[in-house]
Amino acid sequence: MDTVLAETETELLEFFKALSDATRLRLAGRLAEAPRSADELAELLGEKPAVVKHHLGRLAAAGLVTRPEAGSQTYRLRLEGVRALAGRLLAHEVTTVPEGAAANEFEHKVLRDFLSADGAIRDLPVQERKLRVILRYAAQAFEPGQRYGEKEVNARLKRLHPDSATLRRALVDFGLLLRQPDGQAYWRAEPIPAP
Predict the structure, then answer these.
(1) Does residue 43 register a pLDDT over 90?
(2) 160 or 82, which is more confident?
(3) Neighbours of 4 (CB within 10 A)
(4) 3-90 — its CATH code?
(5) Quick one: which of 56, 61, 148, 169 has the most CB atoms within 10 Å?
(6) What pLDDT shows up at residue 143?
(7) d(CA 120, CA 163)
(8) 137: helix, coil or strand?
(9) What residues does each domain of the chain span?
């Protein structure tokens, strides 16, 4: 597992551990209303100040609360810490390669690198070998033996990538999608050529 992802998972675990306590949840809720001191929070929650300070320490360690600055006793909810954690998690969104989409480990890696979690194509690779893998994946949007008009081809490809025209031309250029000379009908090549 990559080091950044492992660190993010550790942070995520600490985040949820910090919020897994009812008192800490109540503290976070009160701090969401307004910044407060430990004594104010203790009074609001009916807890001892030492208990509140202990829980505030756990929330601060998880990046959810800022510790008071010098000369201040005020704790603040730290939403930017939550946003930063969410951003790191989204950056490492795991793509699950559809069953049967990859014939080997190289294809699996290319699909994992270029597909989003919903199966859409994030980017078209520049390297031809990788592009062929992505095009084979895109060709599977068409049923063997079925003929499609250009509008239907574009609609199916638009679900995979916003630039359906470029994707359609590449599929035709690489022989994965065949078409009549007048462009009125398209169909998938059978079998789909290997990359």
Answers:
(1) yes
(2) 160
(3) 11
(4) 1.10.10.10
(5) 56
(6) 93
(7) 12
(8) helix
(9) 3-90, 105-188
- Nearest of 94, 132, 140, 139 to residue 115 by alpha carbon: 94
Residue 74, both tokens? 């005020």
Find out whether 76 and 35 touch, Cβ atoms under 8 Å.
Answer: yes
100: left (phi over 0), alpha (psi -120 to 50) or beta: left
Cα dihedral sign, 43-46-48-50: negative
> Cβ atoms within 10 A of the Cβ of 16, count?
10
* Alpha carbons 59 and 42: distance in angstroms, whole number: 15
- Least Cα distance to 125 among 140, 139, 107 occurs for 107
Are residues 193 and 161 in contact, defined by beta-carbon separation less than 8 angstroms? no
Distance of alpha carbon 137 from alpha carbon 119, whole angstroms: 10
> Which amino acid is it at 9?
E
